[in-house]
Amino acid sequence: DWKKLRRATEAAAWWKLPSRVTLSEQPLIQAAPGLIPPRLCEALIDRAKPRLAPAKLEGGAIASDVRHHSSAAFLLVDTDLVVQPVRDRVCALIDAPAIQSEIVQILHYKPGDYFAPHYDFWDPEFDGHIDALSQQGQRTHTILVYLNHEGLEGGETDFPEVGLRHRGQTGDALIWRNVDL
């Protein structure tokens, strides 16, 4: 029933983005509750499970002193009707074209896994970032979407220099700028 399907996929509702809640003014850190519907979060998790592998640093090295978790990346050729709408909606949140975004990455943490404090900008002084910086430009924003929260302890995103710890609900986004204007 095409009419029923069209009503169930209201484009106008999809593009109505949630209001952002400011968690920190300096640096600017905001939350966007309910950015991605829970069923789409589940679909992303299902798509990522067979791809999960130990997370690596830029340049391909596995660095357990910096990060210990698994990740799955979705390159442009892996984009489908699950990945692309999420990517489009995330980019719309910061008013950026999807073509300028990085690949979609799913991070999976088991008990004891971690990602040590770090910065998300491309550091021109670090050899591993030089290629990314010259090919992609600076990483201006990070948008993290919480895909699940059921039965979890911990799992907050920590900004130690600001004194902010945040953990969203399923489908909530956390947005921060990596560089100033």
Descriptive terms for the model:
alpha+beta; 4-stranded antiparallel beta sheet; globular
Question: Which secondary structure elements does this structure contain, and how are they paired or packed?
Answer:
Layout: H1 2-8, H2 11-15, E1 21-24, E2 29-32, H3 38-48, E3 53-54, E4 67-68, E5 70-74, H4 83-93, E6 104-108, E7 114-115, H5 127-136, E8 141-145, E9 157-159, E10 164-166, E11 173-177
Antiparallel strand pairs: 1-2, 2-11, 3-5, 4-7, 5-6, 8-11, 9-10
Model description:
There is one protein chain. The strands form 4 sheets. Strands 1-2-11-8 form a 4-stranded antiparallel β-sheet, with no helix packed on it. Strands 3-5-6 form a 3-stranded antiparallel β-sheet, covered by helices on one side. The chain is built from 5 helices and 11 strands, in the order H-H-E-E-H-E-E-E-H-E-E-H-E-E-E-E. The model has no long low-confidence stretch (mean pLDDT 86). It is α+β, with helices and mostly antiparallel strands and 181 residues long.
